[in-house]
Amino acid sequence: MPYIGGTPEVQNFIKKYIASGYLVDPYSKEWLASLDARKKADKNFYCEIYNDRYSENEDLFGSEFWNHLLILRIDESNPELIKDLKAIYQPFKSIFEERDSLSGHDKHRPDFILINLNIRKILCIGLGRKNRLFDYDVNEYLGNVPSSVNFNEYASSFTRSNSYYQHFLSDDHAGIVVSLIQGLSDLGSGLFEKASTPGNPDEWPDEPNEDGMYLIEDGEYTAEEFEAIKDGYYQADELMREGFTSINLLFPEIEIGDLNTGDY
Questions:
Q1: Is residue 93 included in any domain, yes or no?
Q2: In the chain, which end has fewer C-beta atoms inside a 10 angstrom radius, N or C?
Q3: Nearest 5°: phi and psi at 146?
Q4: 204 in any annotated domain
Q5: What is the pLDDT of the chain when averaged over all its residues?
Q6: Domain that holds residue 42
């Protein structure tokens, strides 16, 4: 899997963190082979990405999409990763400086960094306050210019109108980026909704009190309200787990708790 260009430090970083599983090239034959190995090792593992699909894309679009995308998982409990990342590209120093006094995505570091080698753009995504998705381009962010990045606009528009994502996704024929970002957004929404639910299933009452009310923490709820609480909780749990599946496809070792900000 040759990467053309870049300093020796960048080349070493790529090799090191692909080997450790923190960095993924989802448009490489090596990654496709790893999916095949997972399918053989785990009968419950399922994904809709196959070698044949990539071959069809090559017939339709040419070979430019191969090796065009790198996705880095950020793990701030791994100081060596952060140190190496800051050493290979100056802008990452600013992004990963301690800024505890700030809010928004200034406070929360990205969970993933997506590098499009064809168009030379770096996209940061993560979960911030209330586990809401944030996304920004590194150069726009550090240049303090209005952001042109808006995944919600792209995903909710029938015409996929956000120009940044139109450009960034031009070679993403397998839908890897959209699946990852939508999965992260859904995971965050599910986590927030579950955290906002009164009590938890282990402590919910089995029966109402003598007034026909269900007591949960400091609140009283009718049977209809209690059913709505339960339905909302389990729907949020399903949304969270489905979203996590898209992330786990790229990073098998990651766990849901690794992405939960706990910032409500």
A1: yes
A2: C
A3: -55, 135
A4: no
A5: 91
A6: 8-174
